[in-house]
Amino acid sequence: MLRSAIRSRTSREGGCAIEPLVRQYEIRANDFTHAGEASSSMKKSLSRLGVKAEVIKRAAIAMYEAEINAVIHGHGGMAEVTVFPEKVVIVIEDHGPGIPDLDQAMVAGWSTAPDIAREMGFGAGMGLPNIKKNCDELKIDTKVGEGTKVTMEVRFT
Amino acid sequence: MKVCDCANLLNAKILVESENFEEDLQIACGSDLMSDVMAFSSDESQIMITGLVNPQTIRTAEMLDVKVIIFVRGKVPDETMQRLAEDRGIGLMTTPLSMFTCCGLLYEAGLRGKEAAL
């Protein structure tokens, strides 16, 4: 089941008060029925805001891959999407096992996904490479035994 | 090539109709690995050919703005998947053909894949 919340933050940019749209979603471990709902919701929000289709697609692919990773590897977690006037910032954080070798995990085709993930069509070892390819900025903070935080930024222009 | 031409060519049964059926298809992607499908995203109008039948097939198509999914070897998605596809404006059809034959016929008819630089 997806739980989402919307809240606003106020910041100052160029002298004008700007309130970015912030949405939060719960991601449940091994829930392949609802996996992707957070990304779908983000995609609809960007579409309603009139963001260009190709930009929305890049953000959707990056978030969906990260969401699936949290479902498969991260024991579930939380997603937070913040829409600024010029970009969207997506953070997906889990409290799973962490990534022991991040460089290795970034290699296309390398995967540690369990059989259940492969049965769902994932585990091709393309998740992190796909995320990197579709983001303008990507930051991965991970610690073995503590979890992983993936911060993705996609600019609108 | 329009979706209706595609359905005739593949002897496919349409499961979920979509307004996209009148669009000209340009690009096709055939795979059972959804991350592979996402690695080949295209701005052109595209269809997905797969033997994978689960909700993530529909979700992947949604993220990529895929217009139509063709399920091979006569596979039929359940009601939940069909409703999800309908809600997202994604057409579904099923063909008795294998993935290889399906892709071959579509290629012969002029559809092409997108060779991504990984």
What is the secondary structure topology, with strand pairs?
The complex is a heterodimer of chains A (157) and B (118).
Chain A: E1 4-8, E2 11-13, E3 16-18, E4 21-27, H1 37-48, H2 53-72, E5 77-83, E6 87-94, H3 102-105, H4 115-119, H5 127-134, E7 137-143, E8 147-155
Antiparallel strand pairs in A: 1-4, 2-3, 4-5, 5-6, 6-8, 7-8
Chain B: H1 3-9, E1 13-16, E2 27-30, H2 34-39, E3 46-50, H3 55-64, E4 68-71, H4 79-88, E5 91-94, H5 99-108
Could you list some keywords that capture this structure?
heterodimer, A: 157 residues, Heat Shock Protein 90, 5 helices, B: alpha/beta, Udp-n-acetylmuramoylalanyl-d-glutamate--2,6- Diaminopimelate Ligase, Chain: A, domain 1, five-stranded mixed beta sheet, 36% helix
Compact summary:
The complex is a heterodimer of chains A (157) and B (118). With 157 residues, chain A is of the alpha+beta class. Chain A has helices at 37-48, 53-72, 102-105, 115-119, 127-134, and strands spanning 4-8, 11-13, 16-18, 21-27, 77-83, 87-94, 137-143, 147-155.
Strand order of the largest sheet of chain A: 1-4-5-6-8-7
Using the coordinates above, name the CATH class of chain B.
Answer: Alpha Beta
| Largest Cβ-defined interface | A-B, 29 and 23 residues
How many whole angstroms does the radius of gyration of chain B measure? 13 Å
CATH fold naming of chain A:
Heat Shock Protein 90
- Could you describe the largest sheet of chain B, including whether it forms a barrel? 5 strands, mixed
Notes on the protein architecture:
The complex is a heterodimer of chains A (157) and B (118). Chain A is 31% helix and 31% strand. Chain A is α+β, with helices and mostly antiparallel strands. Chain A has one domain: Heat Shock Protein 90 (2-Layer Sandwich), CATH 3.30.565.10. Chain A has a six-stranded antiparallel beta sheet with strand order 1-4-5-6-8-7, with helices on one face. In chain A, helix 1 (37-48) packs antiparallel against helix 2 (53-72) and helix 2 (53-72) packs antiparallel against helix 5 (127-134). Chain A is globular. With 118 residues, chain B is of the alpha/beta class. Chain B has a single domain, classed as 3-Layer(aba) Sandwich (Udp-n-acetylmuramoylalanyl-d-glutamate--2,6- Diaminopimelate Ligase, Chain: A, domain 1), CATH 3.40.1390. Helix content of chain B is 36%, strand content 18%. Chain B has five helices and five strands. A five-stranded mixed beta sheet of chain B has the order 1-5-4-3-2, with helices on both faces. In chain B, helix 2 (34-39) links the parallel strand 2 and strand 3 (46-50). The model of chain B has no long low-confidence stretch (mean pLDDT 90). Chain A binds chain B through residues 32-33, 35-36, 39-40, 43, 53-54, 57, 60-61, 64-65, 68, 108, 119-127, 129-130, 133-134, and chain B through 32-36, 38-39, 41, 43, 50, 52, 54-57, 59-60, 62-65, 88, 118.
